[in-house]
Design goal:
Layout lengths: L5 E6 L20 E2 L3 E2 L1 H10 L4 E5 L5 H7 L13 E5 L3 E2 L2 E2 L5 H6 L2 H7 L3 E6 L2 E3 L3 H10 L4 E7 L9 E5 L5 E6 L8 E10 H12 L8 H11 L4 E5 L4 E3 L3 H10 L27 E2 L4 E3 L2 E2 L4 E2 L2 E3 L2 E2 L4 E2 L4 E3 L2 E2 L4 E2 L4 E3 L1 E3 L4 E2 L4 E2 L8 E3 L8
Parallel strand pairs: 1-4, 1-8, 4-5, 10-14, 16-19, 17-20, 18-21, 19-22, 20-23, 21-24, 22-25, 23-26, 24-27, 25-28, 26-29, 27-30
Antiparallel strand pairs: 2-3, 6-7, 8-13, 9-15, 10-13, 11-12
Helix pairs in contact: 6-7
Length: 378
């Protein structure tokens, strides 16, 4: 065994049904974000920047676009002769074919993969959060505490606490209680869904959990509470940076708009901690004379004649003269016709917004999800 070796297991099979049409054809981690990225790029880039050389990507729901995006991991320097990146979909065994039935089951079904790599630690990650984190800081804390598992946590607004697993700790930051999405949380210290385990301990609990027919085979509902019940050494590690669970259309829109805030701590332009992605070979953006572009991100292949204010445009978007876009996220290959006005919206890929369409109002408080078929409101 290589001392202190870490294998990362990235859970990327989520459907993300609350994102509505955004995940109709793709898994949540493959949803475009920030003008040129996909959501999974953040966890992959964090792992690459942290020096992790072995990572398994566990896929399930509509994986084609996600698998195409990841490829062999070359965009994140995971295309290696030894180790590197492996995509791990559900598979057929002597017991027959089956889907992963929970987050813990997904890891259990890949015990052989982890055993072959023979790590000392296993890092469990989610592929659907926006954040930048050095996982070595979490590992150092885990080793310092001589923990069996360390959970990354951060304080969330009290009004959102019931959406998360809530961690209660003692004076030594040792976990004394884990509440999965409580209706009346005791505090607002939420689990980020990032866990550092000692592999020998986690392996035992995965095997035991798999034999329990009453289990949901989930980390938050089953594995962590059982370890707590057995008085294993469980600690919380506090993260103070930017983190966003883009679980709804509104939170997805908010996270994109955060990128345009000059006070935002998620710095995409930090040369010391790049967010990598698979790039397309596209021509430069073209902003015609007379176009108005204020506080906006415009990606490659865009042709802008109209007006943009506080908006994010992905690649190959045409904004005709006389079109106005405010506080909106426009996904790739869209055309915004002359005379159209878009406010507070997320426009899906390959959508044409006709010149007679006036979507939303600047101060109406709604977020609009726009496609060629309909315009639902959140």
């Amino acid at each position: 065994m290589i001392e202190n070796k870490v294998v990362a297991m990235l859970l990327a099979g989520g459907q993300g049904s609350r994102l509505k049409a955004l995940t109709r054809k793709v898994a949540k981690p493959a949803v475009p974000f920030g003008g040129k990225y996909r959501i999974i790029d953040f966890a992959l880039s964090n792992a690459a920047n942290s020096g992790i050389s072995d990572i398994g990507i566990l896929t399930q729901y509509k994986p084609y676009l996600l698998n195409t995006h990841i490829g062999i991991g070359s965009s994140w320097d995971f295309d290696r002769n030894v180790g590197g990146l492996r995509i791990l979909p559900p598979f057929t065994s002597e017991d027959g074919g089956r889907w992963y039935t929970g987050t813990a089951n997904a890891i259990y079904e890949n015990i052989d993969f982890i055993d072959e790599l023979n790590p000392q630690y296993v890092l469990i990650l989610s592929g659907d959060h926006i954040y930048k984190m050095n996982y070595n800081d979490l590992l150092d804390y885990h080793k310092e505490k001589k923990a069996d598992v360390t959970i990354a946590v951060l304080e969330v607004p009290w009004g959102e606490a019931s959406r998360f697993g809530i961690i209660n700790v003692d004076e030594d930051i040792r976990i004394v209680e884990f509440e999965e999405k409580p209706s009346k949380p005791k505090n607002n210290m939420a689990s980020m869904g990032i866990y550092m385990f000692n592999w020998t301990e986690l392996r035992k609990y995965l095997i035991k959990d798999n034999k329990d027919d009453q289990s949901d085979h989930d980390f938050g509902k089953n594995i962590l509470p059982k370890m707590l019940e057995d008085k294993k050494k469980m600690y919380a590690w506090s993260f103070n940076g930017y983190w966003k669970d883009v679980g709804t259309v509104r939170s997805y829109w908010e996270a994109n708009m955060d990128l345009l805030d000059d006070k935002n701590t998620l710095n995409l332009y930090d040369r010391d901690w790049r967010i990598y992605t698979r790039n397309k070979n596209l021509p430069p953006q073209y902003i015609q004379r007379g176009a108005i572009v204020n506080n906006s991100m415009v990606n490659e292949g865009c042709y802008i004649e109209g007006e943009l204010n506080n908006s994010i445009l992905f690649n190959e978007i045409v904004v005709e003269k006389g079109a106005v876009i405010n506080n909106s996220v426009i996904l790739p290959n869209c055309t915004i016709k002359s005379g159209a006005e878009i406010n507070n919206a997320v426009v899906l890929e390959k959508t044409t917004v006709d010149g007679d369409q006036n979507i939303g109002e600047l101060d109406d408080g709604n977020i609009y999800l726009v496609s060629n078929k309909k315009i639902p409101v959140e």
